[in-house]
Structure formats: C-alpha cells, structure tokens
C-alpha cells in the first residue's frame, strides 16, 4: 500500500510524466493486479491519447496475460487514433497471425493498405500472403502496390514473383506494363537489365539483345552506365568478336566524347580517345580525333600547360609513320608542331629528338642534323645537346661529337656532367692525354654545379690508369679547396690501399687537425669513427679512443627568446675554458662512483 501511495502521489504531482505512469502500471502488473494496471494505462491515455509507448506497453501487457480480445480492441483504438504509425499495424497483424487468425491478419493488412503506407508495408503484406501460398492474393497486392508506388523496384519485385510462380508470358507482361507506365522520363536502366537477363535465362538471346539496344537508344548516357556494362558482358558471352569489340568501342567513345566536350583542353582524354580509335582501326576516325585534338592548343605560353599537348603531336606523327605508313604526312605533322611552339620562350627537346630520328629512319641524315642544329640555334638546352651527341655517337662521327661537346661546354661551362661525359668519351677512344686535359679545364672553372662528381671522376680516371702520384696530387689540390670529411676519409682509404696504415694514419691526423681548427665537430667525429674502424684491424685503437669526444647536453636562446636543448661534443683537446675540463672531471667522478 505504501508503494502504491507513492506512485499515486508521483502521478498526481507530475501528471504529464508518461514514464511515471508506465512504471506505476508495470509495478501493478508485477503484483498480479492486472485490473489495476489496466486502469492505470487507461488513465495514462486520458493524459496523452497519442502516446505510442503507452499503447505498445498496454498491448504487451494484455497479450502477455493472454487477453487477446482486449489487445485486439486496444490495437484497433491505436490504429484509429494514429493510422500513420506503422509499428501498430505490424504488431496488430503479427498478433492476429500468432493466434492463427489468418483472415483477421489479412483484414488488418487490407485496412492498413487503404492508408497507402510506405513500400516496406506493402512488401510485408506480400510476404504474408506468400507464406500462405495465396498466389492470386499476391498478384492483387502487387496490382495495388504499383499503382500507389510506381517505382522500378516494385515492378522488379513483381516480375521476380511472376518468374517464380507464373510463366514467361506473365513476366513479359509485367515488364511491358512497367516500361509503358514509367515512360522515358521515369525509366530506370535496372528494369531493362532485369528484363534482358530474364530473356537470357529463357535462352531468348535475340530478345535480350533487342531489349539492350532499345534501352540504349532511349536512355541518356548519364543514366545508363550499368546498362552499357551489362550489355558488354552479354555480348562477350553470347555475341561474336566483332559485336563485342563494337560494343566496347562505342561505349568508350561516348565516354571520351563527353569528357572532351566538358573540357576541350583535357589532353589526357584526347590521347586516350585517339588510342581508342587506333585500336578500332578506322583511319578517318583516327585522323579526325587527332586533328580535333591538336586544334585545341593552349592559349597561354606556359610550358607546363603545353607539355601534355605536345604529346598529342608526337603520337599523331608516330601513328602516321608506323601504322598509316604515310611518311610525307608524318613529316607534315612534325613541321606543323614545330611551327606552332613559341620557341622564343621555350621548346621541347623530345619533339626535336623524335623528328631527327624520324629522318634518320628515312635515311635523311642531313635533314636530321639540320633539324637538331636548328633547335640548338633557336633554343639551346642541355637535353638537345645530349640528343645531338647521342645521334653522332650512333653514327660513329667522333669529330662531330668533340665539336658538339665543345659547343655544349661553351653553352653551359658549369655543367659537371658534360665535362665528365666529354672526358670519358676521350678516355674510351684511348685519348688519355685529351681526357686529362678536359678534366684539368673542368676543375679550373670558377663555377661548377656539382664539383664533387667532377673531382671523383678525375680521381677515378687516374686510379684506373694506375697513376698514384697524380691521384695523391689531386687529393692535395682538392683538400686546398674543401675540408669535407668524405674527402679526408677517401684520401685515407687511398693511402691505406697503396702505402699501408702508417700513411693512412698520417692523413687521419692531418684531417683531424684541420677539422678541429675550423670547428666542425660532427664531421670531426665522423672522421675519428672512420679512423677507429681502420685501427680496429690490428692498429693503435687506443690512441684514437683518447681523441673521441664526450656528448653533452646544452641549452641555447633562439631568436624568439625561447630556450632550446641540443647536444654538443667536447673533445679532449678543446681549449674553450676550464668549464669543459670541470665537466669532464665531474663525468669521470660520476663513473667512478657507479663502479664502486
């Protein structure tokens, strides 16, 4: 009684709190006071007659206690008050089916369908009728469904049902009605795909092909991608080779047409389009695509924009030469491309190179040389020199190669790669004196882009000839120009290989002193580690260990006033003040304490 008074007090104090009413009713039900619980639910509905939760809990209580008629009356009230709440209808029909009142469940569904609910509700009605094998009733529900929801998925489900439970004519009738009802405005490609697949299952391949072609003619390209894909698969399975290739080419052609129409300067799309037509083999179509593509030349004089465009000309010329076998037309293509490029701003070495080799293939060596010479005269660049040199090398015209290397060096004397290639060319011809002279001229240049490559090539050249004295002299000259640690290590390795550890040790000592003087601590550490590695093979490793630095952590002030920690190296021979010696002694003392 006390608990009941508390609940009464609660619902009286907060009458609109439905949760309190539900807890009260649930408690009464747990006390087997079904009448009281029913009374509380009714009082809750008086407060809120549209509360879905109250109706559901109320009905569950009645069904749990096997009061089917009361639950039926309650569901009837619920669907009358809230006919758009699908949950009531589902539960109502389920309850009727659960108590084997099939006709009652059917009547519930019929009442519900009068409200024209969502698609899923109709499918629940159809599945109900299918469970009881009422084929005619299912057809009647489908008739009503496609009237209320004339969507492609509804027609497809109906056709699927007829294929399972009817005959081929019934399925064709459903698909035909779907096409007529939807019309071209609301037509969906999946209806045609399903129709064609049905005909394939019926082994009516010509019917299926006719359906695909009919649909492709009427549906917009943007709405028929899957249709094209399925048609392609169909032709691969049941068509001949020509039909398959035609379908594939037609589909991709339409795709590329749409792409170049959307962006006429999408040069990648033009190239792919031209390659597609080349695979199809229609010469007129191929040339038409190439001509349309080259007509869309860039409107700005920026090389990055022109780069992809030039590839169209290159592919066009290659097609005319290799596939069309029209040499004169290929030469015209090269000429038109070269005339179009703004050479006063930039040029394309690849185009000149390909044109020159085209003339070589035609036996016109003079024309090839004239073309490359014209390129160097109008817009010289490193790649053009290399291309011309490679051409003369292939022709074994070594005097011309020397001339071209000379011109290339005059054009760009800072290019170390050119100097090295020139020297190696002379060396390959057995002209060691000429090669050495080239190297000497190169190292005397005031500006070089990659001097380390040049010096290494020069040293390797002398090493190959076995001139150790010259190599030693080159190292000495190089170390007057740089104190790079790799040079010191390389020289020490050279001395180790030629004169032994003592000579290498002298180089390491000299390098250590030089790097100490210039204050390059990290490079000095790298040198000492290389030295220690050498001494580890039966040498005096202890003397190197005494030179190794101690790693310490320090702080410094940045430009913005903040502090930054960093690691520094303190070498035993540092003379920057007594503070470092004090730190070293403290470190030694700490190690002693740990050992004890």
Strand content: under 5%
- Tell me the Rg in angstroms: 46 Å
Low-pLDDT stretches are: none
Average pLDDT, rounded to a whole number, is 85
Gross geometry: flat
Distance between the termini: 83 Å
Coarse structural class: mainly alpha
Number of beta strands: 2
Features of this protein?
596 residues, mainly alpha, two-stranded antiparallel sheet, 32 helices
Characterization of this structure:
A hairpin with a 5-residue loop joins strand 1 and strand 2 (563-570). The chain starts with a helix and ends with a helix. A two-stranded antiparallel ribbon has the order 1-2. The chain is flat. Helices cover 76% and strands 3% of the residues. The mean pLDDT is 85. Helix 9 (135-148) packs antiparallel against helix 10 (152-165). It has 596 residues and is mainly α. It has 32 helices and 2 strands.
What's the quick description here?
The protein has 596 residues and is mainly alpha-helical. The protein contains 32 helices and 2 strands. The mean pLDDT is 85.
Present the secondary structure layout:
Elements: H1 2-13, H2 18-30, H3 34-47, H4 52-64, H5 68-81, H6 86-98, H7 102-113, H8 119-131, H9 135-148, H10 152-165, H11 168-186, H12 189-201, H13 205-218, H14 225-238, H15 241-262, H16 267-280, H17 283-295, H18 303-322, H19 327-340, H20 349-361, H21 365-378, H22 382-394, H23 398-411, H24 416-428, H25 432-443, H26 451-465, H27 468-481, H28 485-498, H29 501-518, H30 521-535, H31 541-547, E1 550-557, E2 563-570, H32 578-595
Antiparallel strand pairs: 1-2
């Amino acid at each position: 009684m006390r608990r009941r008074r508390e609940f009464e007090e609660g619902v009286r104090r907060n009458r609109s709190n439905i949760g309190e009413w539900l807890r009260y009713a649930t408690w009464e039900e747990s006390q087997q006071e079904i009448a009281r619980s029913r009374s509380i639910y009714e009082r809750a509905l008086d407060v809120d007659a549209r509360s879905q939760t109250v109706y559901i809990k109320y009905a569950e209580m009645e069904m749990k206690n096997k009061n089917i008629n009361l639950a039926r009356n309650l569901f009837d009230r619920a669907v009358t008050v809230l006919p758009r709440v699908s949950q009531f209808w589902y539960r109502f029909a389920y309850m009727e089916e659960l108590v084997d009142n099939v006709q009652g469940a059917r009547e519930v569904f019929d009442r519900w369908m009068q409200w024209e609910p969502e698609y899923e509700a109709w499918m629940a009605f159809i599945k109900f009728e299918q469970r009881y094998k009422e084929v005619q009733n299912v057809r009647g529900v489908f008739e009503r469904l496609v009237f209320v929801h004339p969507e492609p998925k509804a027609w497809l489900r109906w056709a699927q049902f007829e294929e399972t439970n009817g005959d081929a004519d019934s399925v064709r009738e459903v698909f035909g009605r779907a096409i007529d009802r939807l019309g071209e405005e609301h037509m969906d490609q999946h209806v045609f795909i399903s129709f064609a697949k049905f005909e394939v299952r019926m082994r009516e391949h010509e019917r299926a092909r006719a359906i695909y072609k009919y649909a492709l003619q009427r549906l917009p390209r943007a709405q028929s991608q899957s249709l094209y894909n399925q048609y392609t698969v169909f032709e691969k399975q049941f068509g001949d080779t020509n039909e398959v290739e035609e379908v594939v080419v037609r589909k991709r052609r339409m795709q590329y047409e749409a792409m170049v129409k959307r962006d006429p300067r999408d040069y990648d799309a033009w190239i792919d389009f031209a390659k597609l037509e080349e695979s199809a083999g229609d010469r007129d179509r191929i040339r038409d695509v190439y001509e349309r593509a080259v007509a869309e030349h860039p409107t700005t004089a920026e090389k990055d924009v022109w780069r992809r465009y030039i590839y169209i000309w290159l592919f066009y010329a290659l097609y005319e030469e290799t596939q069309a076998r029209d040499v004169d037309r290929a030469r015209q293509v090269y000429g038109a491309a070269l005339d179009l490029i703004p050479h006063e701003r930039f040029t394309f070495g690849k185009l000149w190179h390909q044109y020159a080799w085209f003339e070589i293939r035609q036996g016109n060596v003079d024309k090839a040389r004239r073309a490359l010479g014209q390129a160097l005269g109008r817009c010289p660049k490193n790649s053009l020199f290399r291309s011309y040199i490679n051409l003369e090398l292939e022709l074994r015209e070594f005097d011309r190669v020397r001339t071209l290397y000379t011109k290339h060096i005059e054009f760009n004397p800072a290019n170390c790669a050119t100097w090295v290639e020139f020297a190696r060319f002379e060396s390959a011809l057995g002209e060691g004196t000429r090669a050495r002279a080239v190297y000497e001229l190169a190292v005397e240049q005031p500006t070089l882009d990659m001097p380390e490559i040049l010096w290494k090539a020069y040293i390797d050249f002398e090493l190959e000839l076995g001139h150790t004295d010259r190599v030693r002299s080159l190292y000495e000259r190089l170390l007057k120009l740089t104190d790079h640690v790799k040079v010191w290590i390389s020289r020490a390795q050279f001395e180790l290989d030629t004169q032994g550890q003592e000579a290498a040790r002298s180089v390491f000592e000299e390098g250590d002193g030089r790097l100490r003087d210039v204050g390059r601590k990290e490079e000095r550490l790298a040198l000492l580690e290389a030295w220690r590695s050498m001494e580890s093979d039966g040498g005096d490793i202890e003397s190197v260990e005494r030179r190794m630095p101690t790693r310490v952590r320090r702080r410094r002030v940045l430009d913005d006033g903040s502090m930054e920690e960093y690691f520094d190296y303190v070498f035993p021979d540092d003379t920057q003040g007594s503070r470092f010696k004090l730190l070293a002694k403290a470190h030694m003392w700490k190690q002693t304490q740990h050992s004890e």
